[in-house]
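batch_manifest entry 22 of 60
target: Chemerin-like receptor 2
source organism: Carlito syrichta
requested by: lab member K.T.
priority: normal
notes from requester: please return tokens only, no post-processing; we will run our own comparison against the previous entry in this batch. if the run fails, retry once and flag.
--- input ---
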Amino acid sequence: MEDLEETLFEEFENYSYVLEYSSPELDSEDKAHLGAVQWVSLVLYCLVFVLGIPGNATVIWFTGFKWKKTVTTLWFLNLAIADFVFVLFLPLYISYVAMGFHWPFGVWLCKANSFVAQLNMFASIFFLTVISLDHYIHLIHPILSQRHRTLKNSLIVTMFIWLLASLIGGPALYFRDTVEFNNHTLCFNNFHEHDPDLTLIRHHVLTWVKFIIGYLFPLLTMSVCYLCLVFKVKKRSLLASSRHFWTVLAVVVAFLVCWTPYHLFSIWELSIHHGSHFQQVLQAGIPLSSALAFLNSCLNPILYVLISRKFQAHFRASVAEILKHTLWEVSCSGPVSEQLRVSETKSLDLLETAS
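--- output ---
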């Protein structure tokens, strides 16, 4: 039975995309270290969920229902939707890690959860990239921006982003699979069970495509746009304060810090096909780097919107409006409350007529 388990482990590691299993060769000290890593990862996942749900929901509420529909609010709305949906599915992965990488939810939810995660993670990255490009063109090339920066064109770009993110996340629907191992059901990428060469090719292609399209290109685009923006805006003396500079810098640094370890470990993981001696490092690094990448989904609304003076003003006004109506409902009787609402409606109608 032991020989059979070791044989299964050797075959399994050849086509496993994520090292979410425990090697039979690990001693108790190594397993304790991996257990500590698992708990740290869980804390980070829970932090992302707790911060990401209200943060992105607030952005969706304002950009989707309260603010005027503009190109900028469309970018922020879709960015928040991508982050919100991703964070919404996070409890499934939290449960998976908490149960020692045991997936009790079935193969189809394994595929769907991985697809939704990758779809929204990369949609979020692409919207960050588009926001940086739009910001650059709007400030540095105002004539070009005025001519082509329309809601119609923005909707076309938005659909293209979601389509591209779907294509990158699509392989998860095909390759993601479940397998019984060490009394656990694992959710992993089964590239091929019996052909190591095909496994190697598929693993390399998907990893490098994600790295180039989902990290290198967005990072270079954001860096170049913001560097040019900072230099040209300073040169034209249009920089009102250093607040803008530090906000821009924070966005690029957050993207760099959150996503660099994830892609480095993904590339490093390719070494498992050649008998890697760093399996323990990978088993510890991949969950932690994934948690750090997930963290970017709750940082986005803070860095892009919540520090905006405009957003803060709208937020305070909306809270004041909600409190006002709540106090009216509590303090006034039914008929009086109705009269107040009718009076307020008439006043608004008069203002609209006068304008």
